[in-house]
């Protein structure tokens, strides 16, 4: 059985991106989805000086990277803070990229974002689509959910057109498995 790692680039306990990534991961038949929470992988604020004084990287950075290594595919939904990654995700990303610059190991990835606004995290998606392939992300699908509070109701995407768009991207991920 294929193993999919899904996570939201957010540390919010009520993360709308975690709700979306959990929904997407559970749409895939015959796989074992594992939804990670960044709060389970807290690391200190990255600095080269701290890395030197620790003689390496924090254990939680290694644990998170090992989860990515074990996956057959990845589903990532990025929260957007001021048009960029959240501080929690960027910090963890900085640490894991010091362990191994490959980070995503050419695993098929569905890259997503959502926000309460009409752009649905488009700025952070553009940033990730540019940056992630430099760390061996094999992005096989991209999905943006605008106006989360209007379009995601009762644990699912209520707008059928948007849901069909997500299902298309899920199928792209399944084909890449």
TrEMBL record:
GO MF term set: FMN binding; oxidoreductase activity
Pfam families in the record: FMN_red
Boundaries of every NADPH-dependent FMN reductase-like domain copy: 4-144
Superkingdom classification of source: Bacteria
A GO CC annotation given for this chain: cytosol
Record's protein name: NADPH-dependent FMN reductase
């Amino acid at each position: 059985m294929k193993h999919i790692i899904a996570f939201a680039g957010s540390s919010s306990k009520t993360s709308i991106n975690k709700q979306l990534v959990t929904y997407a991961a559970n749409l895939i038949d015959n796989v074992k989805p594992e939804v990670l929470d960044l709060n389970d992988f807290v690391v200190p604020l990255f600095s080269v000086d701290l890395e030197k004084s620790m003689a390496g990287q924090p254990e939680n950075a290694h644990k998170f990277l090992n989860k990515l290594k074990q996956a057959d595919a990845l589903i990532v939904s990025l929260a957007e803070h001021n048009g960029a990654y959240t501080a929690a995700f960027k910090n963890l990303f900085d640490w894991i990229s010091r362990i191994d610059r490959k980070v995503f190991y050419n695993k098929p990835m569905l890259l997503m974002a959502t926000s309460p606004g009409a752009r649905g995290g488009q700025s952070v998606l553009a940033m990730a689509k540019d940056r992630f392939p430099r760390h061996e992300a094999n992005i096989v699908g991209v999905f943006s959910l605008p106006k989360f509070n209007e379009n995601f109701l009762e644990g699912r995407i209520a707008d059928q057109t948007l849901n069909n768009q997500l299902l298309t991207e899920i199928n792209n991920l399944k084909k890449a498995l």
